């Protein structure tokens, strides 16, 4: 009995050590994924129907075969890319659904998000996370690292602003597809829709294409809206959401409110309510809703909690919210009712009515 107990303790210790090693090397996955994107591995494999052996892949990418082998071995172990047999006993690399998300120009690519979050600018604030927790001052890790918040930094650094807009556009392509496929009915009867914080207009462009009766207003800060490309059915409007929101039949907010504290969210939502008709208007919010249940949908819950940590590192007061917390800010903003619709994306849709 004692021997069995010791063996169980030993196994338990190994599992705990593995968990801590995952923490120690957590950055590794991001760095290797970034490397794969920069090398263009997924883009090259996508152009080949047959498995590609190591020597051919390394030659095409102009890189060391031995180093590439180690990169691919790591990613294959994570389920990104796959190694399959080919002729003469050789092995070749092929795509997987995961690796296709690392294509630089794929329709559902998440590469832009990897490049943003792995940039030196976005990595630096993580070193100030404990400073934020210990400090009573209203200063976020991003401001501690760079002397200004992420929006002021982007305003004066066009290259970083482009990284942010590209990442938001990539997020839009993945999430909006899910909304169109799962929640098309919420756009029926909407003739005008303003996307608050809409970046380069990717979101509205997709919605107008899917629902051509909509006239889109892409509303964002001057340094963002002024460089947004032309988009059929969409006009770009510069402004500040804390001051006012352009009038429309409905307002769309995706990944905006999680950047701000409750009081700021309430201010934004009040401006949104002022912009829509009192009897027929609605605000469409696309944000994470943290699940408070212990063992429910662990994968999605993990993503939500990781996003919350990203908000802590990259914003001054931002956070992801539970259903109860959403109920609080929507009620305080004056909405009479709201509902939460699940989609196949990470974030559900929250419909709020005056």
TrEMBL record:
Keyword Transferase among UniProt keywords: yes
Organism domain of life: Eukaryota
Domain O-methyltransferase dimerisation, chain residue ranges per copy: 21-102
One of the record's GO molecular function terms: protein dimerization activity
Keywords noted in UniProt: Methyltransferase, S-adenosyl-L-methionine, Transferase
Domain O-methyltransferase C-terminal, chain residue ranges per copy: 126-336
Pfam family, one: Methyltransf_2
GO BP annotations, alphabetical order: flavonoid biosynthetic process; methylation
Alphabetical list of Gene3D superfamilies matching this protein: Vaccinia Virus protein VP39, Winged helix-like DNA-binding domain superfamily/Winged helix DNA-binding domain
Residue numbers annotated as active site: 258 (proton acceptor)
Family per record: Belongs to the class I-like SAM-binding methyltransferase superfamily. Cation-independent O-methyltransferase family. COMT subfamily.
Protein name, entry field: O-methyltransferase
Organism: Solanum commersonii (Commerson's wild potato)
């Amino acid at each position: 009995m004692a021997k069995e107990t010791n063996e169980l303790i030993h196994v338990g210790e190994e599992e705990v050590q593995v968990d801590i090693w995952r923490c120690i090397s957590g950055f590794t996955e991001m760095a290797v994924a970034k490397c794969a994107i920069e090398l263009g591995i997924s883009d090259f494999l996508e152009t080949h129907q047959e498995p590609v052996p190591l020597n051919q892949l390394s030659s095409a990418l102009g890189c060391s075969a031995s180093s590439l082998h180690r990169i691919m071995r790591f990613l294959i172990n994570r389920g990104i890319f796959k190694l399959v047999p080919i002729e003469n006993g050789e092995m070749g690399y092929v795509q997987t659904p995961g690796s296709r998300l690392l294509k630089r120009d794929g329709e559902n690519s998440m590469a832009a998000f990897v490049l943003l979050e792995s940039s030196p600018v976005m990595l630096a604030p993580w070193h100030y996370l404990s400073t934020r927790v210990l400090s009573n001052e209203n200063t976020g890790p991003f401001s501690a690292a760079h002397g200004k918040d992420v929006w002021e930094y982007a305003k004066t650094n066009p290259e970083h602003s482009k990284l942010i807009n590209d990442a938001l556009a990539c997020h839009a392509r993945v999430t909006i597809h899910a909304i169109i496929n799962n929640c098309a009915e919420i756009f029926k009867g909407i003739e005008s829709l303003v996307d608050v914080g809409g970046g380069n207009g990717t979101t509205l462009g997709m919605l107008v294409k899917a629902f051509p009766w909509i006239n889109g207003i892409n509303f964002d800060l001057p340094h963002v809206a002024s460089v947004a490309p032309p988009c059929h059915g969409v006009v770009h409007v510069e402004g500040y959401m804390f001051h006012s929101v352009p009038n429309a039949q409905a307002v769309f907010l995706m990944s905006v409110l999680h950047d701000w504290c409750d009081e700021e969210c309430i201010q934004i939502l009040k401006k949104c309510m002022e912009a829509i008709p009192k009897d027929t208007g609605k605000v469409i919010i696309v944000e994470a809703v943290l699940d408070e249940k212990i063992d429910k949908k662990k994968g999605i819950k993990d993503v939500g909690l990781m996003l919350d940590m990203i908000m802590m590192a990259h914003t001054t007061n931002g956070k992801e919210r539970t259903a109860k917390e959403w109920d609080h800010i929507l009620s305080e903003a004056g909405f009479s009712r709201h509902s939460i619709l699940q989609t196949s994306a990470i974030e559900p849709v929250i419909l709020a009515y005056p």
